[in-house]
Amino acid sequence: MREIELLAPARDAQTAREAILHGADAVYIGAPRFGARAAAGVGVEDIASVCRFAHLYGARVYVALNTILYDSELREAQRLAAQLYEAGADALIVQDMALLRMDLPPIALHASTQTDNRTPEKARELAAAGFSQIVVARELSLPEIAAIHRAVDVPLEAFVHGALCVSYSGRCYASQHCFARSANRGECAQFCRLAFDLRDGRGRAVARGRHLLSLRDMNRTDSVEAMMDAGVSSFKIEGRLKDTAYVKNTVAHYRRVLDAIIARRPTEFRRSSFGESSVSFTPDPARSFNRGFTEYFLHTPSGPMASPESPASRGKRIGRVEAVRRGALEVALDGGETLQAGDGLCYVAADGTLQGFRVNKVEGGRVSPHRLVSPQPGTVLWRNHDAAFERQLSRPTALRTMALRLRLDETADGFSLTATDEAGIRVELCKTLAHTPAETPQREQIARQLSRWGGTAWRVVETDVRTACFIPASVLSAWRRELAERLTAAHEAAYRRPVRTVRAAAPSCQPARIGYEHNVANAEAAAYYKDGGAQTVVPAYELREAPGAVLMTCRYCLRRELGACLREGGAHRLVPPLSLALPDGRAFPLDFDCARCEMRVMVGRKNAKDSSR
To answer: N or C: which end of the chain has fewer CB within 10 A?
Structure first.
């Protein structure tokens, strides 16, 4: 039986707690330094508080320490890893191989998606090096995930929802090249969300001012079970920069999806933590930030992947414009949709850009915007700010409780009260108290009093009262409070963190030359590869820019997106060579490797070779 984990992002301690309450089996959170989202670092004391809260439910806390490290940072990174272990963290998510050579506590290490995990060979290397969990690349298909699953004996983690990077993770140097802000150092400037002109070999602008590299957001709701069958054990929601409302909504949604599958297949899968989450809203990922959805490359063929109109959220479709009269929009709402003042709406204008406005007033199907807009009749409207939903999510919206069974027995000099919860934790109170005969039946009253566990992590599902004696309500309340304290302490004592797998110290069968794309930024990482047989280790791009370098390596292909893929029989209407141009004049040639089905964004140079010709 395989454990299935729902892994949620957390930008801070409060968001982490809400993720747990709404059903996450684990959260990933940024370390104070060296996380791939530099703006989402969290203090060690806050991480410790999250660990205590999560471990009560058997949930885990993974800390992102996944930037590449410079030599001057190694000692601090080692010290920070030790502090995080002492704080209770269950694993470190890492990219830099230097950590494999450090004197670390026995904390589990997870291979970040930044390590570019796309093949069974790479997965075997990482598993052999001692990684306890591997985050596979977002670009993989179900058969490719299954092949990796067959190759290794460690759990696979895969993204199921959220923003997509257009380049293979760990292989993007555009932000460093253009803005001196390294994605591998947690400072991505989001080059891929910029507007470009697409120019062909004749110098013509095939497209102007389009966000051609800006992908839609991932939503694999309909393929979760297929991913489980392919070998995915940990389902990861992207979003360490997202707000708490987003995390609440997406976690609650995927909790329902996973629970339904596990309930149908209980002999194959089980949940990796305890407790049932009760939420006060109906989860719907379309009502949170999204640029439109794609399953990306999970299936073949795949639908449209980009959102070229804008990198902003478009939200959920709510209807169509029927007419514009006297500054107001007559709107035909989709079934079940309603609008109210304060909502934010958007639409794709005739020039192909995404336009938005706030709703001032709603009267039936008549919508008054805060500014003059003129969408054409038939234009689809999307709601990218749902005022009512956001207000609802701003309040407490979830309780998470573990099933608890109580038994009250008489003893020779008093009573014993035993509690057993769904995690298998059992505690017993033995109290000295006179056996006072009751004047009226007491069993129902005692059971009712003992079942009042509101505000705790438990809910009573069974109370077996085996006495007819009278026990004061105040005494029963005191016993119940003491029992809760003992249960909490017993959970803390029983929790066992994963232990780091100690395996080979260096990879085997390494190529003789380790290129800049391996992101080696310090002597320890270089030694890791040299111990595995590498003769030459090229420094990371952040240390030494390589002439003619590949800034992005993408499985996403503009030719395919624009209907001109040669392998799919598309018309060859895009005259090579192609390049992307920014408004400031900088141009980036595109190189197409059709044999690998890859597109590369190159450092600007004249007459870029188009290898697919």
So the answer is: N
Give the 3-state secondary structure of residue 299.
Answer: coil
Residue 257 to residue 275: CA distance in whole angstroms = 16
Cβ atoms within 10 Å of 445's Cβ, excluding its own: 16
For residue 154, give the nearest of 80, 238, 252, 232 by alpha carbon.
232
364-375 in b/e burial notation, b at 16+ Cβ within 10 A? eeebebeeebeb
Percentage of the chain with pLDDT > 90? 87
Asked whether 474 and 481 are in contact (CB, 8 A), the reply is: no
- Region 56-76: mean pLDDT is 97
Best CA proximity match to 245, nearest among 137, 387, 374: 387
Among residues 381, 399, 266, 377, which one has the least CA distance to residue 323? 377
Strands 513-514 and 536-537: parallel
Angle at 346 between CA 340 and CA 352, to 5 degrees: 165
Angle at 573 between CA 353 and CA 304, to 5 degrees: 45
Q: 234, exposed or middle or buried, with CB in 10 Å at 0-12, 13-18, 19+? A: buried
Mean pLDDT of the chain: 93
- Going by pLDDT thresholds of 50, 70 and 90, the confidence category of residue 566 is confident
Residues in the chain: 613
DSSP character at residue 578:
P
Contact 20, 456 (CB under 8 A): no
Q: Report whether pLDDT(582) > 70.
A: yes
Of 449, 441, 493, nearest to 473 by C-alpha is 449
Sorted by sequence, the CB contacts under 8 Å of residue 598 that are 6+ apart come out as 553, 554, 555, 557, 592
Q: What share of the chain is helix, strand, coil (3-state, %, to 5)?
A: 30, 30, 45
Contacts of 14 (CB under 8 A, 6+ apart): 244
Q: Give 51-96 as a DSSP string.
A: HHHHHHTT-EEEEEE-S---GGGHHHHHHHHHHHHHHT--EEEE--
In sequence order, what are the beta bridge partners of 330?
A: 323, 366
User: pLDDT (tens digit, 9 = 90+) per residue, 424-464?
Assistant: 999 999 999 999 998 888 899 999 999 999 999 999 999 99
Looking at domain 2-164+219-273+281-287, what is its CATH homologous superfamily?
Answer: Aldolase class I (3.20.20.70)
In degrees, to the nearest 5, what angle opens at C-alpha 150 toward C-alphas 148 and 156? 50
Q: Which residues contact 73 (CB under 8 A, 6 or more apart)?
A: 34, 522
Dihedral sign computed on CA atoms, order 484, 489, 490, 492: positive
Backbone phi and psi for residue 149, each to the nearest 5 degrees, phi listed first: -60, -40
Burial level of 465, CB count in 10 A (0-12/13-18/19+)? buried
**Which segments of the chain belong to CATH 2.40.10.170?**
312-393
Question: What is the architecture, at CATH level 2, of domain 312-393?
Answer: Beta Barrel (2.40)
Angle at CA 563, nearest 5°, toward 561 and 565? 85
Query: Which residue ranges does the chain devote to CATH 3.20.20.70?
Result: 2-164+219-273+281-287
pTM of the model: 0.95
Q: At what angle do helices 74-87 and 44-56 cross, to 10 degrees?
A: 40
Whether the ω angle into residue 577 lies within 30 degrees of 0, i.e. cis, is yes
